[in-house]
Structure formats: structure tokens, C-alpha cells
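Record 1 of the preview.
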Amino acid sequence: MLYNTLTRKKEVFAPLKNNIVRAYFCGPTVQDSPHIGHARAFIAFDILVRYLKFRGYKVFFIRNVTDIDDKIIEKAKKENVTPFEIAHRYYLEFLHAADALKLLHPNIEPFATGHIPEIIELIKKLIDKGFAYTTKSGDVYFDVLKFKEYGKLSGQRISELKAGARIKPGEEKKNPIDFALWKAAKPGEPSWPSPWGRGRPGWHIECSAMTMKYLGETIDIHGGGADLIFPHHENEIAQSEAATGKPFARFWFHVGLLRMRGDKMSKSLGNIVPIFEALRRYDHETIRLWAINTHYRKPIDFYWDLLENTEKILDDMYSSLFLAEQQLETEHKTTESLNDFNERLRDFIAEFKKAMNDDLNTPKALGILRDFTEFLKSNLNRLSKSQIETAIKEIRELGWVLGILQMSLEERIQEKRRRGKDISTIVPPNYIESGDIKPFLDLIIAVRNELRKRKIFDLADSIRERLKQMGIALEDSKEGTKWRIKK
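->
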């Protein structure tokens, strides 16, 4: 079941064609550095894609880049650079943030300025069908009154919109609620040739044009932040369905907004948190865990103490995993086998899927995964080696769906040390690192060699066995004794 903003209810999801899900997610407008609110939205869509893949679907998804719009042009003027320089700079920042958060790569990441011919053709079609009109100055507007279903996504009525709308000076609209498909060129701004004169696309038309080019006239899922429901996605529906006469997207997926201690995050309030500032303090899995601990459709709060608590939850889950992995590495010899292990395992997996099938209920799925790791930790001495291996494998796979629990012990230690964090919460008992113990081991080996010279073999063998249990293997040869940490 997946909630559909268009119908305002949960619906059974199945792709329109075969086993392939075709999805489009509104990507960044690259006019500033990405912030933590962007991270929340993109993580939510990433988990949707991951879960669809986990359930066996082939997912073909697009994440666009708006690289030309009013804000980009305005910023370029302030910095005395070209809009393309602004767009390129912040696109690279976004790309770096997306990789740092371990977002799955889209199949295609199209740029608005790379699809001007497709945009022009779509606008021509709307004009030919009577849904759009040109002005003397060379602008092209969509005639909202011609599309009778306008407002069906946001639930707004045309009469109410008209009452609150005004035509700005210089605009040649028929109605104040009409929106721009093409904007006539202004001095110093980027522009492209068109049948209506040089100009550039309006904001909304790019998504419709690129969606249709790569995914077809009707797609399975269209997503974005809740702030895009109106006017952006409402306008996308109007222009797309007016052009084709077909439903544009079967499911509309919208992610709740972010609040900073209850307040809306905004530049005017000075409470914007850049993604890279969050990543400087916390690793990507902690940020992802923070994001999924609230259902994707609900507003989410952000404050640093909350991330600190989130990191503790993640470390607790990791400590269970690492303890189990250590037990395997030290030649786990338990001959017991928990009789109901397979049944318990099936129950955990089934409950996880049930939660995710219920409109991606990640808070509940996370709780089940936490219970799973605690079950593993509590029953280590009652599980056989194969049962431990199976449990670890399943926990890692379910963790992949949420984008967490994918690090090795060494990777987790590195992430925490990079940020000056305490590692004692995650390392198993008796854990040692090679760089810290070399002088100590050299001394132990020297003592053992002296014991062997004196033929005190039982004590020498005891030292070797104890080191082996700690994960350190000694190798005796003619050249001397070498040691290695077993992985």
C-alpha cells in the first residue's frame, strides 16, 4: 500500500507495465548549497526505490536538475558571474552530498537546459490544442481555466485561487492564475530561440517534457517535497494531461517538511542547516536513521541533540552486529541450535515487510530491525554458527533497504574517529587494532619464545591459544614468529 496524494488515500501499488516501475523525482534547483531539508526528501525517495528493488521490481527512475530559473539568474547577477557558473557550482555540491548520503544513482539525471527542443515541442502542442496562448512580448502562458480539473492534486478551487491572485506589472496574462510556459528574453539573461522569439522555459514545463521523453506519457510514481504540491506539481498535471489527454502520474509521493525545533526552516529565520555541516558532525547512516525515524509524510524536527540520540540507537544496533561477527571470527563452537530460530527469523522478516508495505512505515520497520539485532545479541550462545551467519546476512539486507547497518567494524570506527567520537560503544570485548598493540605483541612473543627455549611448552601453547581466542594468530617459522589479526 502506498499513499497517493492525488486520491488522498493508501492504494495497492503495482507497476503499469510488466515488473518495471517508472518513477520521477523532482531534483534540486541548483541555486544554493543543499540543506538538511533536501536530505530528508531525497532519503525518503531513496528508501522507496530501495524497497521496490528489494521486493523484486526493476526500477527506472529520473531525478532532474533545474539549472535555469529566476533565483539562479538573480544570484548570478549579485556575484557578477554567469547563471551557468552558479548552476554548475551548486550541482557539484549536490552531487557530492548525494554520494555522501549514499543515495542510489538515478538512471538518468537530465538538466532543463539540455532539453529545450522537447520543451518547445510540448509548448507548441499546448498552443495548438488551445490550452496555451502567446503574448505580444513573446511570453507563453498556460490557460488554467481551460483545464477543468485544475486543483485536483492540491484540493484548491480555481475561484479561491483567482480571488487571491494578482497580475504583476508587465505581465500580459488573461487571468492572474495562468502560469508561464515560456519567458521572453530579458537583457543579460540566458535565452534560446523559439517560435515566439528568444527566451527560456518556465519552471514547471521542464519536468513534463523530460518525464515524457524518458518515461512516457503516463508514469507510475512522481515525487517531491510537500512544498511542491502547489503550484509546481499541480501545474505539471495540468500541462501534461492537457497535452496528452492521459493521466500524467498514477501515484503522487510527497515528503513532509522539516522544522527547526518547531519552526519552519528558512533563510529569513537564519536556521538553515547545510547538509555538509550535518555530515561534518555525524556520519551518513546517523542522518539517514534520523530521517526514517519519522514517517516520510509527517513533518520532521531537526535539532542537534536529536541526532546525538539517533547515533546512540545506531551504535547499539551495530554493537550487536559486531559482537556476533566477532563470535564467528573466534571460531564459534556452539553445538546448540535454537529450535525455533527459522520461525523467529521468518517472523522478523515478515513483520519488516508488513511495516514497509504499509506506506513505507519506516519507524515501525526500524523498531523491528532493532528487535532483530537485540534478539541476535541475546541468543548468541544458543545459536549455531550457521544461524548466526544467517541472522547477520538478513539484518544487513534489511538494513540496506533503509540505508543503514552497511559498515564493517573498521569502517564504523573510522567514521566515528573522524568526528572525534567515542568508539567504546561499538567495539566488541577484547577488540584490538594492529597499530595500537604492536609493541605489546612484540613483548608477548618474546616472552613466549623464551618459554619455548626453556621447554615450558604448556605455558607457551596457552599463550598462543589465548591470543587465538582474541583474534590474533601466531605463525612460527624458521625466520621467527609472525602475528596477524584474523578478519
